[in-house]
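Problem: given the chain below (137 residues), write out its structure.
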Amino acid sequence: MVKNIVKDINFLSQKSLDMTQEDNYIIADLKDTLLFNKRFCVGMAANMIGYLKNAIIFENNKKTYEVLLNPKIIKSDGKYEIEEGCLSLEGKRKTVRYKKIKVEYLDEFYRRRIKTFMDFEAEIILHEIDHLMGILI
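Solution.
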C-alpha cells in the first residue's frame, strides 16, 4: 500500500526497532511507496512511512530494488562531505558519507547477508540507516 511520507521531526528522530517476520507487511508498503515516489527518491526507510522498524529499500545500480532488514555498517572507508535532500525534509543539507561500506543485514527472506556497497549505493544506504537511527541530515 502506498503510504504518506512522514515529515514529523519528533517521530523521525526516534530510533527504530529490529524487524521480525511479523513485520513483513512493511516491506510491501516500502516497495509500493518508493515506486510511487521514484521520480523524487531512490531510497526509503520504514520510519519515513510511519513504521519505527529497521527496514530500508533502495534502487541499486541494476535499476532493481534491494531490501535491507536490520542493517548494520561493519566497515566504512573513503570519507567525504556532500549535500543531500530528503522527501521527509525540505531543502538540502551537508553531511558526511563514505565511498565504500560493508553492511551486515537480513534480506527480505530473512537470510543473513554481508555485502560491500560503493559510491552512490553506499550514499543511499548510509542516508537511510541514519533515518533508522533517528539521525536527520
